[in-house]
Amino acid sequence: MDVFESLESEVRSYCRGWPAVFQKASGSRLYDEEGNAFLDFFAGAGTLNYGHNHPLLKEKLLAYLADDNVVHSLDMYTVAKRRFLETFQNVVLAPRGLDYRVQFPGPAGTTAVEAALKLARKYTGRETIVSFTNAFHGMSLGALAVTGNGMKRGGAGIPLGHSVPMPFDNYLDGRTPDFLLFERLLDDSGSGLDAPAAVIVETVQGEGGLNAATPEWLRGLADVCRRHEMLLIVDDVQMGCGRTGPFFSFEQAGIVPDIVCLSKSLSGYGLPFAVTLFRPELDVWEPGEHNGTFRGFNPAFVTATAALEFWDGEGGKGMEKETLARSEQVEQALGKIAAAHPEAISGVRGRGLAQGLAFTEPAAATRVCAEAFDRRLLMETSGPESEVVKLLPPLTATSDELDEGLDIIASSVDAVLV
C-alpha cells in the first residue's frame, strides 16, 4: 500500500478504516487482492442498492459498449437518454401521478443539490434557504451552506451564508418541535429571517446520524412551505431509489415535493449519475444557464434503465415488499443488541434498509466497525460525533446474508462492550 500512502492525498478516509486492497465484487460481497471475502453493509454509501456487478445491468452495459454506442454526449439527444427518460416516466413518475421535468445537472448528488438551490432562488427571486440540524447535502459550496456538520463546513474556507438552520424532527431532547416558531419567524418582520426561497430536507438523515423524520412532521413541513410560498426540496440522494421501501423516501408521508434530488443508486451500477426533478412551472432555466461536461453519461443511462426495468419486471416485482420485510429483520436484530447493552447503546435509528445503533460513547461505534472489519464485514459510522454504527446493505442482500452480518455486528459489539 506504499503507493497509496506516498501519492494519494491525506483527505482519503474510508480506506483508513478498511486497510485492504479490493479487487473484485459480486452481489453483497467485496474481495481483496488476496481473495478474502467481505460482506458489504456499506454498498458504496448507498450507491449499490442492486449490489455489486448485478448480472442484468452488467449484460446491458457490456453490450452497449461493445457496439460502439455513444459514451459522452453533454446534453445532446441520444438513444440511451431517450430510453432512460421513457422508462423513468413509465416506471417511476406516471404510476405515482408525479409531473416533473428532469434535469441532468452533472454526475453527483451535490450537483443535483446545487441545481435545486440555484433554481429555487431563480424562480422565487429570494436568496435564503432553510435547512436542518445535522443535515448533509454535499461538499460543494452551495450544498455545504445547507449542511450541518461543522468539520465539513469548516473545509470551505469561506463564510457559508444565505441559509438558516432549523431543528430537525426530534432534535430537542427527544421532543419534536412544532412549526409555530418557524412560522412566527416567517410572519414577524422583526425576526431577521428573510423570506426563504426554499426548504431542503432529508426524510432520513443518512450522514447526520440516521435521524428519521415522522410522516406527520414531514406533512407539517410541507404545509408550512405551501402557506408561505416556499419551495420544498427533498434530497433523496441516499434514501431514494428504494432504500426505505418505496422508490422515493417521501412517499410514506404522502407529500409531493416541488423539487427532488436523486443520485447514488439511480444508475444502479455505481456509475456517476444524478437528476434534479421539479414541477414544470419551475423550469425557468435559460438554455445553458446551468450545465456541466458530464451531465450526459450514456453508460449510466443504460444501467439506470436496466435497473428500473428490473425494479418493474418479474425480477424485482416484490422489491419494495422485500425491502420492508428485510428492514423488520434488521430492526429486530438491532433491537436485541441494543437491549443487551442499555447503558452503552441509546437505541436503534433509521428506516428501511438504512438503520443503525446509536452509542452513548462515540468512540465505541468506531471500535465496533473496526471489530466488524476484522470479522470481514464492512460498515461505516454516522452522526456528528460518528456515534452511530450505520448499516446500508444492498437491497438485494438475502435474508441469510443479513443474518450473517447481524451476527457479526452482535459479536463485534460484545467484543467492544463486554
UniProtKB/TrEMBL annotation:
Record pathway: Amine and polyamine biosynthesis; ectoine biosynthesis; L-ectoine from L-aspartate 4-semialdehyde: step 1/3
Keywords, alphabetical: Aminotransferase, Pyridoxal phosphate, Transferase
Gene Ontology biological process terms, A to Z: ectoine biosynthetic process
Enzyme category, top tier: transferase
CDD domains given in the database record: OAT_like
Cofactor: pyridoxal 5'-phosphate
Family of the protein in this entry: Belongs to the class-III pyridoxal-phosphate-dependent aminotransferase family.
UniProt-recorded name of the protein: Diaminobutyrate--2-oxoglutarate transaminase
Taxonomic source organism: Actinoallomurus iriomotensis
Taxonomic path: Bacteria, Bacillati, Actinomycetota, Actinomycetes, Streptosporangiales
